[in-house]
Write a structure and sequence with these properties.
The longest helix has 17 residues, at about 45-60. The protein has 2 domains: about 10-90, no CATH class; about 90-125. It is about 55% helix and about 5% strand. A two-stranded antiparallel sheet has the order 1-2. Helix 1 (about 25-40) runs parallel beside helix 3 and helix 2 packs across helix 3. It is mainly alpha-helical. The protein starts with 15 loop residues before the first strand and ends in a 6-residue tail after the last helix. The protein contains 5 helices and 2 strands; from the N terminus they run ββααααα.
Length: about 130
Amino acid sequence: MKDTLLSFDELPVLPRDKDGPVFNQPWEAKVFALAVRLSNAGCFTWPEWVEVFSQEIKAAQERGDPDQGDTYYQHWLNALERICAAKGLVGGEDMRRRKAAWRRAYLNTPHGQPIDLAAAFKPERP
């Protein structure tokens, strides 16, 4: 990663070990990397990210999230969706369409196989 002004220490309770961030699922690493990359690209500042992410965690706690660490990256994803929409990086309809495609792809992929997102975007046959 290029030299940045990002400070992961600013993030609330980032799951980590001695080597850095830890992830339970591959999607967690991807959403983490995407937020870092978009910030590095100037799409939003790291302080903006920390603010939106902190708001997402607070809202989850207010909804009764037990905060056992297993929902951390779901909050990360929710915050990423919010900041990308707020910055105009993605429209609401595009986001809904992409989520639906991912869901179709996920539900139609045998366990243990890579998800083929391209197949989810092919038009359905009558």
